[in-house]
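#onboarding

Welcome to the new folks! Below is a worked example of what a typical request in this channel looks like: someone posts a single protein sequence, and someone else replies with the predicted structure as tokens. Don't worry about understanding the tokens yet, we'll cover that in week two.

Example request:
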Amino acid sequence: MNDIRIEVLGPLEATIGERPVQLGGPKQRAVLAALLLAEGRVVSVEHLVDVLWADDPPTSAVTKVQGHVSALRKALAGSGHPGPADVLVTRAPGYQLRTTDLRTDLAAFDRLVAEATTRARADPSAGARLLGAGLALWRGPAFADVAAPAIRAAAARLNDRYLAAAEDRADIELRLGRHRQALEQLGPLLEEHPFRDRLRELHMLALIRMERPIEAIASYQRCRTLLSRELGVEPCGRLRRLAASIGYHS
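Example response:
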């Protein structure tokens, strides 16, 4: 089989069949990441130079980009693909990573989330299971080992999609009365993302529905202190109203 599987939800990895592809060093990985993010569109050499060196490219930048592309093709061939130039195509004004015969964990995640959104209306439990399956594909932050700033910015947007799916799953769990499961899911996420309003709201709701209002108020107070200290703002209106509903008055 010539199918290439590329995993981006965590460190960047690729396999052909059961054989891993040696993706090379940081810049080579950044080139591959930029091509993957283009989702089958042509990526100009100029854009790849910007990804790799931002505002300070060397005079040999174009040649180096060509070298990285050549090395990626050799890596595909070395893992058994018979036509790497048909996968990573030279196409003016740059290169195209063809999506035929290419499978990614990101595409699988997106399919599961879309199916969950549709199924959850009639069958919330199925929606929660599908979201859980999608979230389980993540091995860490997207493109975790690619340091190029342009890739990190794109990765941050992908990580937001993970958080939104996790929030949706917790919301369904709460609607199904599975408050403890929701709380177990939300706690670690809130530790990592304390400024995220919807995570905080769902965390407070889970505590309230478990008849732990004092802990819900404590969660709100931590949020308020953090926002005041770091950003100089108050919690959003939804959080303030939720806190007031259980007797908190600033």
